[in-house]
Amino acid sequence: MFSILVHEEPDVILDQLENIFHFNNESMVVIHFNPTFNQGVSTLSFERLLLILEQYKNKVFVNPERLEVGFANIIQAHLSNYKYVKNVDFDYFYFISSNELFLKSGVSDFVGFYDYGCEKRKNPKWHYINELNRDDSLKKILSCINSNTYVYSQIEGTFYSKRIFDRICSIIEGNYNYKTDQKVIYPREEVYFSTIAACLFKNDNCYENCLCKIRWQGKILFTSIRSVKKVLDKSSNYYSVKRVDRRFNNYLRSYIRDYLTNYGDRLPKYSLNIKKRSLLLIYFLNLYYLLIYFIRDKIAKIYRFLIKK
Predict the structure, then answer these.
(1) Cis peptide leading into residue 188 (ω within 30°)
(2) CATH number where 127 lies
(3) Disulfide: which of 115, 118, 212, 286 matches 158 by Cβ 3.0-4.6 Å?
(4) Helices (DSSP H) in the chain: which residue ranges?
(5) Plot region of 87 (φ>0 → left; ψ -120 to 50 → alpha; else → beta)
(6) Are 228 and 241 a contacting pair, CB within 8 Å?
(7) pLDDT in tens, 116-152
(8) 299 part of a folded domain
(9) CA separation for the pair 94, 92 (Å, rounded)
(10) Is-contact 252 244, C-beta < 8 A?
(11) What is the C-alpha to C-alpha distance for residues 107 and 127, in angstroms, rounded to an integer?
(12) Share of the chain above pLDDT 70, in %
């Protein structure tokens, strides 16, 4: 069961669903909609989107609870997604982002070898370490699981067996209330899930990494075609990439949809906005953004150096 949180662009949501099912045909998806969902430039209305989603019978579950989410404040929506589908028959709860796309099949077979998969990082210089140390809810969770340490993990591409995540969900709900525990804002989902699993299920079989490749150019999140090709290598245990822009005709999204796969053929009945990019234009745009982000990163480093001075 894939858990996804969405907040804009109906066309892009359908594009992502077709991507998911193209590579994970036997999977299911539970979707949480932001209460301030933005139609953006899509010609597809939200109401029409919901009608289309009904056609994915027993494959797509639309969570009726629409909780407020924001930057570094999404854990409550993933927990809500799990509670909504917990009585559905599935084996693993798997987290993906709305700007993530799969590139190859096989994730289900890979996940089946493990009880859960997440990183187990612990860095006193992590950029959220001050917020983490002031998080009273985390302190209560650590007390509940008889631990005095934390680990954190990227959430995209992490997964937990239903048995394990059911326990994780129960512990978090008993010690954290997102409506009242707002003294600090940071990505709790990157800490709570992995910390509880690493402490309570240390004897279970854990894959200590994520299955989604996130590429940073300095401090800028950017996925290049080169990154895509590396993930496609059979030796890679990554199955998806982030960030893919949430614009329906973004060059990288078009490259994955129209040249690496053929799932775009199933989209015209839902959308009138498909524009197949030429490979020449795609490679040109890829080079253009590589240069732009490289320059931006260098400028940012110079700025941070001068500020420190």
Answers:
(1) no
(2) 3.90.550
(3) 118
(4) 10-23, 46-53, 75-85, 107-111, 129-133, 136-144, 162-175, 192-200, 225-232, 251-255, 279-308
(5) alpha
(6) yes
(7) 999 999 988 888 999 999 999 999 999 999 999 999 9
(8) no
(9) 6
(10) yes
(11) 30
(12) 94
Helix (H, G, I), strand (E, B) or coil at 294: helix
Measured CA to CA, the distance from residue 171 to residue 185 in angstroms comes to: 20
pLDDT score at 174: 95
Residue 49 falls inside a structural domain: yes
Residue-range definition of the domain harbouring residue 17: 2-213+223-274
Q: Scanning the structure block, which residue is given the tokens 């040109």?
A: 284
Tell me whether residue 262 is in a domain: yes
CA 186 to chain centre: 16
CB 94 within 8 A of CB 102: no
Cα 264–chain centre separation: 21
- Classify strands 240-242 and 100-102 as parallel, antiparallel or unpaired: antiparallel
pLDDT above 80 (res 107):
yes
- For residues 126 and 152, the answer to whether their CB atoms sit within 8 Å is yes
Structure tokens at 173: 């709900």
Distance from C-alpha of 296 to C-alpha of 309, rounded to nearest angstrom: 20
CB within 8 Å of 186: residues ≥ 6 apart: 72, 128, 131, 132, 135
Q: How many domains is the chain partitioned into structurally? A: 1
Sorted by sequence, the CB contacts under 8 Å of residue 198 that are 6+ apart come out as 118, 120, 151, 206
- 213 membership: H or E segment, kind and range: strand 212-214
Arithmetic mean of pLDDT over the chain: 90
Q: CA-to-CA distance for 44 and 269, rounded, in angstroms?
A: 11
Do 67 and 32 contact (CB within 8 A), yes or no?
A: yes
Distance (Å, whole) CA 232 – CA 74: 30
The span from the CA of 24 to the CA of 288, in Å, is 32
Count the helix, strand and coil residues of the chain and give each as a percent rounded to the nearest 5.
40, 15, 40
